[in-house]
Design a protein that fits this description.
Layout: H1 8-17, H2 19-24, E1 26-31, E2 37-42, H3 57-64, H4 67-76, E3 80-91, E4 99-104, H5 107-117, E5 122-123, E6 126-133, E7 138-150
Antiparallel strand pairs: 1-2, 2-4, 3-7, 4-6, 5-7, 6-7
Length: 154
């Protein structure tokens, strides 16, 4: 299967130097070499703390924003167009200290997308993950919808 021109580890290093993540305290801890999973941490510091001393909601959303698209895009390969379409966040409890988000893209979900787009149709799958504190407390629930379509062959 065709992959993007960069490795998962090259992307991880690059994202960790990307100013919006670097200055917000977001750190990509892991991206699987097969693009099936990722783990991200958001550290609490003065640049991402809100008025009441908890994590700024925009930082919580930003830490989760690109990963479903990146995992799907690189897992499906160059024959697919993959874009973010919608995003939602539900704040569950105050985030204090380090928080984490894990993303797991299964082969079953990829196969669903491949089947839904096999005839040239678009697919609009939803993905969901939690942002959790170090003790496992759910801080936020993030939902992302992707737009996926097979590229037309010339």
């Amino acid at each position: 299967m065709a992959r993007r021109s960069h490795s998962a580890q090259t992307l991880r290093r690059g994202i960790n130097l990307w100013p919006p993540f670097l200055f917000a305290g977001v750190r990509v801890l892991h991206i699987a070499d097969d693009w099936s999973s990722a783990r991200v941490r958001l550290r609490m510091h003065r640049f991402n703390r809100n008025y009441v001393g908890t994590h700024f909601g925009g930082s919580l959303f930003a830490m989760a924003d690109p990963f479903w698209m990146l995992l799907a895009m690189n897992s499906l390969g160059r024959d697919y167009i993959v874009w973010d379409k919608k995003g939602e966040i539900d704040f569950i409890s105050p985030g204090r200290g380090d928080v984490f988000a894990d993303f797991k893209l299964t082969e079953d979900r990829l196969e669903e997308i491949r089947q839904a787009t096999a005839d040239g149709s678009k697919a609009l799958p939803w993905f969901e993950n939690d942002v959790v504190a170090a003790d496992g407390t759910v801080v936020a629930r993030v939902r992302k919808q992707l737009y996926v379509r097979r590229k037309e062959r010339a």
